[in-house]
Amino acid sequence: MLKKLPLIGALLVALSAVEESAAAANPQVSIKTSAGEIVVELYPDKAPKTVENFLQYVRDDFYKGTIFHRVIGNFMIQGGGFTPDFYKGASGFGQKPTRAPIPLESKNGLRNDTGWIAMARTSDPNSATAQFFINTVDNAGLNHPQPDGHGYAVFGKVVKGMDVVNAIRAVRTTRMGPFSDVPADPVTIDSVTLLGAK
């Protein structure tokens, strides 16, 4: 029995290394904003279509120069779909054209808890394109099947920069045209990049 202990120990070390390697395999993105940097870890094993969709927008440099256009401090911060032209009230409010919407992946076991990121959508459950939101509190009411029988697809979590998220959630907001909860001063997304990408 004593002779087997080193082997068991070696196996445990090997298993631990595999688990660490699997965790490290999750892609991370850096969201650099006018308020600071947020780093988000993504979970393709839980939401493969959602993560691939998001990363394609990242690879296309789509998010550069977009804004957080909706901020509700005790709920979430939402962005990734409009440029600062939003503030000019021009036709379309500076909304960027997107690719086709993706199917909803809200039954993946991930929750809309504080610091977790999910896709924004309309009342159509399969309408998410580029816009995302970061939960600033635990929003159980957004988890499948709430609030409309479908839920919102969570696909990652903030692993660095919650102080930046909290700074954004605290900005003064106003109403602009048909939009409410708009930051009075633009909070821009300067870039979103995949960390470790060559």
Number of helices: 3
Bin the strand percentage.
25-35%
CATH architectural group: Beta Barrel
- How does the overall form come out from the CA principal axes? globular
What's the structural domain tally?
1
Q: Gyration radius, to the nearest Å?
A: 19 Å
Low-pLDDT stretches: none
Distance between the termini: 48 Å
The overall pLDDT average reads: 91
Biggest sheet character:
8 strands, antiparallel, barrel
Q: Structural class of the helices, strands and pairings?
A: alpha+beta
Number of DSSP E strands: 10
Q: What is the CATH top level name?
A: Mainly Beta
Query: Could you state the CATH homologous superfamily?
Result: Cyclophilin-like
Order of helices and strands: HEEHEEEEEHEEE
Which strands sit side by side, in order, in the main sheet? 1-2-7-5-6-4-3-10
CATH topology, which one? Answer: Cyclophilin
**Fraction of helical residues:** 10-25%
Quaternary status of these chains?
A: single chain
Summarize this structure as a short list of keywords or feature phrases.
globular, two-stranded antiparallel ribbon, 198 residues, 10 strands, 8-stranded antiparallel barrel, 28% strand, Cyclophilin, 20% helix
Provide structural commentary.
By secondary structure, the protein is an alpha+beta fold. The chain has one domain: Cyclophilin-like (Cyclophilin, Beta Barrel). It is built from 3 helices and 10 strands. The chain has helices at residues 5-24, 48-59, 162-169; strands at residues 28-33, 36-42, 66-72, 76-79, 116-119, 132-135, 154-160, 173-176, 179-183, 188-194. The strands form 2 sheets. It has an 8-stranded antiparallel β-barrel with strand order 1-2-7-5-6-4-3-10. A hairpin with a 3-residue loop joins strand 3 and strand 4. The longest helix has 20 residues, at 5-24. The relative contact order is 0.23. The model has no long low-confidence stretch (mean pLDDT 91).
